[in-house]
Design brief:
Blueprint lengths: L2 E8 L8 H9 L8 E6 L3 E7 L12 E4 L10 E10 L2 H8 L7 H12 L9 E9 L4 E6 L8 E5 L2 E5 L2 H5 L13 H5 L15 E2 L4 E6 L3 E6 L12 H19 L7 E3 L4 H13 L5 E7 L2 H4 L11 H11 L2 E7 L1 H15 L6 H14 L4 E3 L4 H5 L8 H4 L26 H12 L8 H13 L2 H15 L4 E3 L5 H8 L3 H4 L6 H7 L5 H4 L12 H16 L11 H12 L18 H12 L6
Parallel strand pairs: 13-14, 13-16, 14-15, 16-17
Antiparallel strand pairs: 1-3, 1-9, 2-3, 4-5, 5-6, 6-7, 7-11, 8-9, 8-10, 11-12
Family: Belongs to the asparagine synthetase family.
Pathway: Amino-acid biosynthesis; L-asparagine biosynthesis; L-asparagine from L-aspartate (L-Gln route): step 1/1
GO molecular function: asparagine synthase (glutamine-hydrolyzing) activity
Length: about 600
C-alpha cells in the first residue's frame, strides 16, 4: 500500500553517527505514511520507510532484513529491502519460489531477489518503487515499475547516493542544497516536454520507468532497462483483437481488485473509466462505489471546448445506474480548490498544476472516507488513441510534438541567456530515435506509431504523476488496469488503421460495448474536468504579473518582462483562446509559472 521510502549510501562516512539525519529524512515521508515507520542504519548504508497502514497478514514490515550469514560482520551479509506500492502477481510468485500461501509481499520480494538478483523486477506485475541494499557485495538496487506509476528519486554525489520516494527526502539531508537547473527551464514551464529521469532540481534524477539502477563504490549509478515495448506484426482480425483486449483488461482489473474490503472507482461516464468500473462491478462480491467531481460554478461558467465538450456528472450518474454502483458526486467550490492547493504542492514536492491537482485531491479525500483502494481508467487515451489531435492530419504531419499547438509558450519569454533554441526539437528527435520500429511499416500506421510513442512519454507521465501524488497523500491506493504492461504491449502492436478505424478509441469501444450504456458509447471525448471561473483566471493573471514585475520575485530576472507583460494583458482581455490547444482558457497557460514560483519560494530553491 501507499507509503514512502528513503535511503543513504555513503562509503566514506560512518552513517551510524548520522542516524538523526536518517530519521529526519524518513520523517519527511509522514504525509505518505502517517501510521509509523522505522529505519535501519549500518556503517555505510541506511534505509527508512514510513507506512500508511498497519501491516495486514499479507504485508510485511519494513525495512525488511534477511541475514545471509555471508560476510565478516553480521551486517555485511544482510540484505535490506524497502518498497512502496503493490505487487499484483504475488500468488504466482509464491508458487514459483516454493513459498507458502501465507508468505507476505516482503517475503516474496526478498526471496525473489535472493534467487534472481536484479532480474526479479522483470517478473513483477504491479505498481512499485523499491530499494534493496545487498551487504554481501555492498551493492544498492533501485527499481521502478514498467510504466513508472510509483515515484523514486535519487541524488548521486562523490562517495555516496541519496534516494527517496519524493525529493523532500533528499532535501532533508544537509549534503544536498536545492537548486533550480536553469538549463531545464523549458520542462519547468512545460512539464509535458520532460524526458524520463529529468527533474528541474539540479542533481536530482528520477529512476526511469522499467529501469533498474545499481550503485556501487566502483561504478557509481548504472541504469539499465528491464523492459521495453517491442514492435512486431499483428495477426489478429478486428474481432479477435477486440476479444483479446477484453480478456487482457478483464484480467488486469481482476488482478488489481483488493482481496477483501471495499473498493471504489473513479467514474466520469466516459469509455475508459466506465469500462474499468463495469468490469469491477461484475467481479466484486459486493457493490462497487463510484465517484466523480463537478464544480458549483459549472452552471454559470462552463463553456464547451474541444477537449471538454460537456460536464461529467450526468454521464457518470447514467453509467452508475447502468452498472448498479453506489455513486457519489463531489461538488467542489472555488474556495475548496484554493484551500487545497498548498496541500497539493506538498504532495508533489515539485512544481504542480494548481486547480488541476486540487480537484483530484479533493475527490480522493472524499473517496478515502469509504475505501483505501480504487480503480481508474487513466492512460487509455494514450494507448488506444483518445485525443482529438490524433485525428487532425495537419497536426500529425508536423515535424514536432503534435499536441503542442500554435499558441504562445512561456519558454518563449525567457531572457536570451536562458532560452535554449532547438531544445524542443532536440527532445522531439531523441524520442523519435527511441521509437520501436516495425520493419516494413510505412505511411499513416508508421507515423501514428511515432505519434503515440510521443504521447506515451512526457504527456502520459504528467497524468500518471498527478494521480499518484494526489492519491498517495490521502492514503488511497489508485490502481490503473490500463497500465498493465501486458495490455500495453498488446495494444502497442495493433495497427492504427485497426485501433481507431471507427474514430476515437473504437477498438476499446468494440471490446467493451456490451457493458457500456449508450450514453457512454456515443459520448464525445471529454478530458478530466477543470473549473472554468473568470475570477480564478484573473487571479492567475494577477499572480503572474507580480512574478514578472515585483523586485522581490525570485523568477523576475528570468523573463523578458516587457514581452511577457504584453502577453499577460492579452490573456487578461481573453484574446488568446483560439490559439490554445483544445480551446482552453489562456489563463491556464500561467499555471506552471505560478506553481514554479510557489515551489521556489516554499522550498527555498536557489535560482542563481
Amino acid at each position: 500500500m501507499s507509503g514512502g521510502l528513503i535511503g543513504w549510501i555513503d562509503f566514506e562516512r560512518d552513517l551510524t553517527r548520522r542516524a538523526d539525519v536518517v530519521r529526519a529524512m524518513t520523517d519527511t515521508m509522514c504525509d505518505r505514511g502517517p501510521e509509523g515507520g522505522a529505519v535501519h542504519v549500518t556503517r555505510h548504508a541506511a534505509l527508512g520507510h514510513r507506512r500508511r497502514t498497519i501491516p495486514s497478514p499479507g504485508e510485511g514490515r519494513q525495512p525488511a532484513l534477511f541475514a545471509t550469514g555471508r560476510g565478516p560482520a553480521p551486517e555485511d551479509g544482510t540484505v535490506v529491502l524497502v518498497y512502496d506500492g503493490a505487487i499484483y502477481n504475488l500468488a504466482a510468485l509464491r508458487r514459483s519460489l516454493g513459498l507458502p500461501p501465507v508468505a507476505t509481499d516482503i517475503d516474496v520480494l526478498l526471496h525473489a531477489y535472493l534467487r534472481h538478483g536484479a532480474d526479479l523486477v522483470g517478473r513483477l506485475v504491479g505498481a512499485f518503487a523499491m530499494a534493496i541494499w545487498d551487504g554481501r557485495d555492498r551493492r544498492l538496487l533501485l527499481a521502478r515499475d514498467h510504466l513508472g506509476l510509483k515515484p523514486l528519486y535519487y541524488h548521486p554525489y562523490p562517495g555516496g547516493i541519496l534516494f527517496a520516494s519524493l525529493p523532500r527526502g533528499i532535501m532533508a539531508n544537509p549534503l544536498f542544497t536545492p537548486r533550480l537547473d536553469r538549463s531545464l527551464m523549458a520542462i519547468a514551464l512545460q512539464p509535458r516536454l520532460t524526458l524520463a529521469g529529468e527533474t528541474p532540481l539540479a542533481g536530482v534524477h528520477e529512476v526511469k520507468p522499467a529501469h533498474v539502477i545499481t550503485y556501487t563504490a566502483e561504478h557509481g549509478p548504472v541504469s539499465r532497462a528491464y523492459w521495453r515495448l517491442t514492435s512486431e506484426p499483428h495477426h489478429h482480425t478486428p474481432a479477435e483483437t477486440a476479444e483479446r483486449v477484453r480478456e487482457l483488461l478483464h484480467d488486469a482489473v481482476a488482478g488489481q481488485l483488493p482481496a477483501s474490503g471495499p473498493c471504489g472507482a473513479m467514474l466520469s461516464g466516459g469509455v475508459d473509466s466506465t469500462s474499468v468500473a463495469a468490469l469491477a462491478a461484475r467481479l466484486l462480491p459486493h457493490a462497487l462505489d463510484t465517484y466523480c467531481v463537478e464544480f458549483d460554478s459549472d452552471k454559470a461558467h462552463f463553456a464547451p471546448t474541444e477537449l471538454r465538450p460537456d460536464v461529467d456528472a450526468p454521464y457518470a450518474a447514467a453509467a452508475a445506474e447502468h452498472m448498479g454502483s453506489r455513486h457519489t458526486t463531489l461538488t467542489a467550490t472555488m474556495p475548496d480548490l484554493l484551500a487545497a492547493i498548498p496541500a497539493t504542492r506538498r504532495a508533489r514536492d515539485l512544481p504542480g498544476w494548481g486547480q488541476f491537482d486540487a480537484s483530484m485531491y479533493l475527490l480522493f479525500r472524499r473517496m478515502r472516507r469509504d475505501t483505501t483502494v480504487a480503480l481508474s481508467g487513466e492512460a487509455a487515451d494514450e494507448f488506444f488513441g483518445g485525443y482529438p489531435y490524433l485525428f487532425k492530419p495537419e497536426l500529425i504531419r508536423r515535424d514536432t510534438f503534435p499536441w503542442l499547438g500554435d499558441g504562445p509558450k512561456l519558454a518563449d519569454f525567457l531572457v536570451p541567456e536562458l532560452a535554449r533554441d532547438g531544445d524542443e526539437r532536440a527532445r522531439y528527435a531523441q524520442l523519435l530515435g527511441e521509437v520501436p520500429r516495425l520493419p516494413g511499416e510505412t505511411g499513416l500506421d508508421a507515423r501514428m506509431r511515432e505519434v503515440l510513442y510521443l504521447g506515451m512519454a512526457g504527456p502520459l507521465a504528467v497524468v500518471l504523476d498527478r494521480k499518484e501524488r494526489m492519491s498517495a497523500a490521502q492514503g488511497l491506493h489508485v490502481r490503473l488496469p490500463f497500465c498493465d504492461h501486458r495490455l500495453v504491449q498488446y495494444v502497442w502492436n495493433v495497427p492504427w488503421s485497426m485501433k481507431c478505424a471507427g474514430g476515437l478509441k473504437s477498438l476499446l469501444k468494440d471490446a467493451m460495448a456490451d457493458l457500456l450504456p449508450p450514453s457512454t458509447l456515443t459520448r464525445e471525448k471529454s478530458a478530466y474536468p477543470h473549473v472554468q471561473n473568470p475570477a480564478h483566471d484573473q487571479a492567475l493573471v494577477r499572480e503572474a504579473t507580480w512574478i514578472v514585475n515585483a523586485s522581490e520575485s525570485p523568477l523576475r530576472a528570468m523573463f523578458d518582462a516587457p514581452r511577457l507583460n504584453d502577453l499577460l494583458k492579452q490573456i487578461g482581455a481573453n484574446e488568446l483562446r483560439a490559439q490554445l490547444p483544445g480551446g482552453a482558457s489562456a489563463a491556464q497557460l500561467l499555471v506552471q509559472l505560478v506553481e514554479l514560483n510557489a515551489w521556489v519560494r516554499e522550498y527555498r530553491v536557489s535560482v542563481s
